[in-house]
Amino acid sequence: MTYYKANYHTHSLYCDGKSTLEEHVREAEKQGLQQLGFSSHSPVPFENSFAILEEKVPDYVHEIDELQQKTSIKLLKSLECDFVPGMTKDFDEWRTTYQLDYIIGGVHLVRPPHGDGLWFIDGSKQETYDNGLLDLFDNNVKTAVTTFWEQTFEMLETQHLDIIAHFDKIKMHNRDRFFTENEQWYKILADKAIQLIKRYDVIIEVNTRGLYKKRCEHFYPSTELLMKARKADIPVLVSSDAHKAEELTLFVPEALAELERCGFDHTAYFDVEKGRFVY
Ligand SMILES: [Zn+2]
Ligand SMILES: [Zn+2]
Known about the structure:
By secondary structure, the chain is of the alpha/beta class. The chain has one domain: TIM Barrel. The chain has 9 helices and 11 strands. Strand 3, helix 3 and strand 4 form a beta-alpha-beta unit. 44% of the residues are buried. The model has no long low-confidence stretch (mean pLDDT 97). One zinc ion binds next to loops. The site of one zinc ion has 5 residues, from loops.
């Protein structure tokens, strides 16, 4: 397995992370990483506790530039952009305004087709997921999960992203309670997402966070989806989605072994000269 030692998905005190940018850099040096990408949650137009504030983005970008002077690791600038139809800014606006190296796109908040409110599928509390399912979707799990996937399709079709974040995170708080990933309707939706990822040249990350946070027994995405991604010749890389410096490389060897089992022989990496990912 040819693996470029890098982590492109990290959070800091600028958003909901618990470490400073500098603490991440020091840890990356200790771990021998060649590249480190910062990806704060993009600002969103409503009250929340997880995203970077829009007025803080210039400081964030500036601090990364400053840190670059003090380390031999290549630092990269990014945002993990949330896509909520009709609410969030075009990803390319962030990219061009702040000259970001790449964009990670993801769905954490699902907007019901009718009515107000957002279903928060991430976070530490299973009850938030369960309450949203009840309040916003009348416990109709098929409608709710379909809405998640359709929002993912729309993101892929309308936004310019380099990496898709934790592709099947919708399974995290489900824990096989409301649906299983073997159900035909679910497979059809996930398969369509894979087709779109292929069509728009997006990289799938193998995200290890569910495992070390013990919120999920598998990587995002699941083995079966990774095998389908391999068949479709979709590029992959490994992310720990670290919110603390000490999480920077957790479960990376396991993720590489998983990729190997699924038939991959290399991971994508950021080519500094070209200014984009190559695979
Ligand atoms: Zn995320
Ligand atoms: Zn993240």
